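Lab notebook, bench 4. Still working through the backlog of constructs that have no structural model yet. Next entry is a single chain of 183 residues. Request: give me the structure tokens for it.
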Amino acid sequence: MSTQKTLLTADEFFELYSHKDGKFELVQGEVIQMEPPGEEHGEVALNIGTSFHGYSRKYGTGRAGVESGHRLESNPDTVRGPDVYFSLSRRPGGRDRVRAFVTGAPEIAVKVVSPSDTAAEIDRKVGEYLAAGSLRVWVVYPTSRRVTVYRPNGNAICYGNDDTITDEELLPNFSLPLADIFA
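Model written out:
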């Protein structure tokens, strides 16, 4: 005898889990509880988010955020909350904020790797963001102090040591030294 799983929609997931303590994601209709991030993880995410936010304010473009749910797939629904994101299509200070989840992927999704993350999980998330429309996915490795930036065409750029992340195509005049990420 087999048991059929009850899959949730993104709307049901929001209604049932938005008020609960802890971090949850919805993966193909199934709720996944996430491990709470550690201090280093939070500081790294804050440093990146602060840089994106400052860029947004200075140039009047895009909106930065942290851990906001983005509906990446439908039927069954997948909702991921990138550690940090930057959405070029959303205006800073604009009134286009949504109560529940943003439909679609942010142009830039950032995954800060935690000790419990597996390579397979990271690869899956990178693939989901790119398939849903992200133009860049940053995978940040606090332990090794490096960042890999993935693009939809399959190219990836690895940054380490004294490198500075730039992206004239998406973020003209933006630069973020790795030393500032891991400060």
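Notes after review: The chain has a mean pLDDT of 91. Residues 10-181 form a domain with the tt1808, chain A fold (CATH 3.90.1570.10). Flag for follow-up if needed.
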